[in-house]
Amino acid sequence: MLSSGGAGRAGSPPPVPPLEPPEHPLAVDPPKQPLSPRVLVVLPYGVMAVVTTVDVTAGPGVGFLPLVSLGPAFAGLVGGWRRTAVVGSAAFLLCLGLGMYDGLFEGRRGLPALLSVAGVTVAGVVAAVMRQRREAELANVRSIAEVAQRVLLRPVPRGAGPLRIAVSYTSAVAEARIGGDLYEVVTSPGGVRIIVGDVQGKGLEAVESAAVVLGAFREAAHDEAELTAVGARVERALGRHLGGERFVTAVLAEIGDGPFATLLNFGHPAPLVVRAGGAVDFAAPPERALPLGLAAYADDGPKPHTVPFAPGDQLLFYTDGVTEARDGGGRFYPLDTRATLLKDDDPEEALRAVREDVVAHAEGPLHDDAAMLLVRYREAHGDDR
What we know:
Blueprint: E1 3-4, E2 19-20, H1 38-58, H2 70-75, H3 81-102, H4 110-152, E3 159-160, E4 163-170, E5 181-188, E6 191-199, H5 203-223, H6 227-241, E7 248-255, E8 260-266, E9 272-274, E10 280-282, E11 305-308, E12 314-318, H7 320-323, H8 347-362, E13 370-377
Helix pairs in contact: 1-3, 3-4, 5-6
C-alpha cells in the first residue's frame, strides 16, 4: 500500500549509517566470447595436408596444386604476421616440391601455382599486420572505457546499516561497456539516498549527461535536507547542460531509520517491491511526472511518496532495458512474475539470476542498456544476508 508524503523528518537527523565498502568492482556482463580459435589455428595445416594427399593420389591432372595457397590465407585470420609468413613459406616449399614431383615445371604449369602462393602469403602478412593494429587500438579503447566507467559508475557500497545493496549493469554496447544508464548510493543525515536513471540517447552525449546528473546528485545528496531539494538541484544542473527536448528519466529514493522508503519519480519505471512474505508490487507514484530536463514543460515537479519498507523487504530499481527486453514472440520481460529469482541470500547472486534470466528471455544480447540496483532490508542487524 503506497502513501504520499514529504521527504523530510522532524527532530534531529539520525546518524549516518556506516557504509560497507564494495567487495569487488562493479558487476558488468562481459561481451560474448567468440568460438575457440583452435580450429582456425590448425586449419591452414589441414588444408595443405588435404591438397597434398589429393595431388599425390589423384595426380597433377586434378589441378589441386594452386589450392595450397589456402594455407597462408587461413593463417592470416588468427595469430601474428610472423605465423602467416611461416605458413606461407611452408606452403611455398610444399608447392615447389609437389610441382617437381608432378613434373609441372617442365611445361611452366608449376609457375602460376608458386606465384599464387607467394601472392596470397604477402597479402596475408599485410592483412595480419593491419588486424593486429586494429586489435591494439580496440584494446586501448576498451582500457579507456574501463577507466571512464570506474569514474562515472563507481562501485556502490555493499551495505549501509541494516541495508544490503547490490548492482548490475549490462551495456548494449559490448565493446565500450558503458552507456546512458546511471546509479549512485550516498549516505546523508537523512538516511541512504539512491538514484537510478536512464539518459535519452546513446554515445558520448548520453555519457556526458549521466556525468552531470551523478555529479549534481552526489553533491546535493549530502547538502540538502529534503529529497525534493535534491531533485531540484539535479534538475537545475541538467537544465544548464541539456538543450532542446532531451531528458533523463530517474527515480530518487531515501531510506532512513523508519519503516518507510521515500521515492521521488521523474518519469522512470516504478521500482519493484518484494515483501518478506513474498508479495510483489510496483511502487508507482500517485501522479506521473515529466523526466529531468523537461521542467519548462511542467507546472510542478514530482511529489514524493512513501513505500512501507520493513525488515525482510526488497526494493529493486531498474531501467527500461530490463522490462523492455523482448523474446522471439515480441513479449516484454515479466519482471514482477520473476521476482522469485531474488530469493538468494546473497543480493549479488540474486541480481545475477535476474540478469541471466533477462538475457535468456531476450534469446541473445540485449538491445538496450540494462541497470538494476537491489536494496534489501536485513531481517535483523545481525543478519549477514
